[in-house]
Amino acid sequence: MTRFLDIHGINASYGDAQALRDVSINVNEGEIVALIGPNGAGKTTLMRVIAGLHPPLSGTVKLGDTALHPLAAYQIVEEGVILVPEGRRLFGGLSVLDNLELGAYAPRARKSRFTMLKHVFELFPMLAERQHQHANTLSGGQQQMLAIGRALMGLPKLLMLDEPSLGLAPLIVENIFEIVKRMNDEGVTIFLVEQNARRALELANRAYILEQGRIAGKGTGKELLHNNDVREAYLGYAPATG
Amino acid sequence: MSIESFAQTLVFGLFVGSIYGIAAMGLALVFGVLKMLNIAHGELLMLGGYATFWAFRTFGMDPFVSLAISIPLLFAVGLILDRTIYHRIVRLLGEEKIKNSLLVSFGLTLVIQNLAIWLFTADERTVQVSYAGVGFNLLGVALPYTRLLSLVIALTATLALSYFLHRTYPGKAILGTAEDFEAAELAGINIHRVYMLTFALGASLASIAGTLVTVIYGISPSIGIIWTLKALIVIVLAGTGSILGAFPAGILLGVVEAVSGAFIGPTYREVIGLVIFVLVLILRPQGLFTRK
Questions:
Q1: In CA terms, which of A106, A114, A130, B69 is 20 to 30 Å from B93?
Q2: How many angstroms separate the CA atoms of A96 and A134, rounded?
């Protein structure tokens, strides 16, 4: 496996509060890597740094040989690194179809937007049925599917998902995770931030734990699932006694 | 008041209102997408009016034909203003952005106004086309050609903008950026190009309004602020964030002003407009033409 996404020594802050301290993470091509941690640990900030929405104080983000941190957000999309943001952030007043079309705005993706649209409609037949509806008329689960569909329209090499299961019913969460797995099988590398730590660790090849802006642990999904500290802090087990 | 003169009042309200609408639409577009208030919008309108006046004075060009010059000219002025000034402000966030946009565009208002006095003198200029005052009668209602043409142009510009925003890729990128600029960036849209294009389009719309104002009223360097205020009232009526809603809102204001001018007296025309403005702010602060 070749080193793909390489995040090195990222420091970032919001005003005076430092949100990330010396964070280094790498994601190999074809992997699913999860990032778990409590609220306010800096997970979303890290995603925003990678996507170019939040300039870091220091550190580098590279995709292969391309440095991403000097690029603007739209240029990072053009490189194939696409974020499905927390809260989905759809264009609510535009139709489902317009949302998908805008997902393919970058020149690289625009060329193949018709084939991609077909593919997205295969993955999410519901979106085809509702393509002329305004995005803000969709249910939470449908909106998440549209957000993922919009990201796919940009032809991601690396797809980043920030809390894709937030606020969704368990059955729909299951559905979303299946789709994520399927996209990974189709060759898209996945970097996932999740509150639902158990589900994320089951799905991921590897995972990192972010606590108070620092990497507090890492390992394969299986290792972390069976790690006592992780079980206690994130998976809801009582500390083992005796 | 006879039926005819009432109908005449309504029709004149419609004519005037369509100019209000087109003057406000450019301001609404810039406000809706860049989220900043361009006080200098009226000055752009004034410059567009002068382009029309000089094309008429120098080449004898029909003012409606000269739109072919004034629109691209103001588009270019918009591009330059965005690249030199506004792109610095649009990067700011929240309150800082609004405050700075107000200060800078107010400053720009003074600069453009004085530049216009220096270049064009403070005289009021009018364009007298050969068909001025000519028109036809429909059931006793006078329809002057200049006013009719103005209405047609305002309507055409509105429909063209609507088509551009809803049916073309760059137009959809503008609407997407207006809704959520970060989501637009994540979709691969270069939002600073969107802002530049939007500002230039706003200036182009101002130039159309300026041409119509010049034909119907005449123009001087000081008219800008009047039209900025009028446009502000219209976009509050329409609902901030509603771009195309500015057109019907402008017509509404024009008709209300005309009718109240006829019934209560011309001195109160503007007052009634402001009363409507306050009523809308109290009763329907989201505006009359906002989509949910």
A1: A106
A2: 6
Round to whole Å and give the CA distance between A138 and A150: 14
Q: B205's torsion region: left (phi>0), alpha (psi -120 to 50) or beta?
A: alpha
Q: Which of residues 176-235 of A touch B (CB under 8 A)?
A: none
Residue type, A150: R
Query: Do the Cβ atoms of A89 and B183 come within 8 Å?
Result: yes
Q: What is the ipTM of this complex?
A: 0.93
Question: Is A42 in the B-facing interface, judged by CB distances under 8 Å?
Answer: no
**Strand A81-84 to A158-162 pairing:** parallel
Domains in chain B, number: 1
What pLDDT digit, counting tens, does each position of A89-137 carry? Answer: 999 999 999 999 999 999 999 999 999 999 999 999 999 999 999 999 9
Q: State which residues form the domain around B107.
A: 22-238
Pair A220, A32: CB distance under 8 Å: no
Position B132 in a domain: yes
Q: Is A8 helix (H, G, I), strand (E, B) or coil?
A: strand
Please provide the CATH number assigned to the domain covering A1-80+156-242: 3.40.50.300
